């Protein structure tokens, strides 16, 4: 586990000098949103539960941190059931199954490639996010 936690908290991180003794303020008030998010992920992973639910787990991270954390999460999700709720497609594109939920119902279900081939809602979402980065 420590190897992957390094990606959540690199040496230049806020928690590198004092580790678990780092002061974070009441309810994490001294931390940024991204730092609180990384701590929440680390706590979930340290518990080592067989089921992991990640709800917008990387939404408060910058692009570089998201890539590092996503890489660590990809390794840590192996061997456990994981449900990922996300708007960022980079977070879900490698999932075994992707469910597109619209109005509280599953509108589409499949892998990334299957859903792209269907040219439905998922394909539209992917296109919209690609345009945002061009």
Automatic annotation (TrEMBL):
Single annotated GO MF: ATP hydrolysis activity
Database matches in Pfam families: ABC_tran
InterPro entries: ABC_transporter-like_ATP-bd, P-loop_NTPase, Type_1_exporter
Domain ABC transporter: 20-59
GO BP term, pick one: oligopeptide export from mitochondrion
GO CC term, one of those recorded: mitochondrial inner membrane
Tree of life domain: Eukaryota
Gene3D superfamilies documented for this protein: P-loop containing nucleotide triphosphate hydrolases (3.40.50.300)
Protein's name according to its UniProt entry: ABC transporter domain-containing protein
Native species: Linum tenue
Lineage: Eukaryota, Viridiplantae, Streptophyta, Embryophyta, Tracheophyta
